[in-house]
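Shipment paperwork, digital attachment
Item: protein structure file
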Amino acid sequence: MRHIKENAAIIGGNAQADIDFLARINWGLFDVFAVDHGADICRALDITPQALIGDFDSLQERTLLTDDSRTVIRLPLDKDISDLYYACRHLEKKQLYQNIYLFNADSGRPDHFYFNLRAVDLFGPHVRLISRHGTVSKLLPGKACSLALKKGSLFSLLPLERSEGVSISGARYPLDNATLIADTHSLSNISEGETVVYFSKGRMLLFTGDLPDHFIIGQ
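Attachment content:
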């Protein structure tokens, strides 16, 4: 019988890493996988990843690839999939984790950030992007989602296409059977406790300003 673990973390290769934030993460909660320059980030944080994944075109410390204690998955330079997408697909195929969290995958180059957000859409809903600002996750149509938010917490709905039948309850700005497109109508809402989001058709991501308290050391 396959043993399913709770959390994996993929540390991306964003060159503008938020080291102060990453140093506060309780990495003991995760099996960590490093994507390309993410291996340098792991080294800076004294984290031992399960594997190094990538074409390593942005890796700075090349000796990390020759350490026999590390699993290295080398990808070709010329390919039609990003290193982070490959890492997500690799972990999805293994089916070993309930949740996969993407770290150091925000900001940096706008095109990289865009496709990292789309990775949440493609591989979600159990794949989430984490930054100091909060969490990006995927919502599913036809399924009411009760948001685990503290009263007063910020959240936004990010429609990726025309999304219909959108309802929000338990929030400062409720909606009832609304249609959202890629505008800012659903930006910066506030939870009033027991917030529930539902939509019947479309594709949407959810941004919440909260992080799980146990993720952060000292909270």
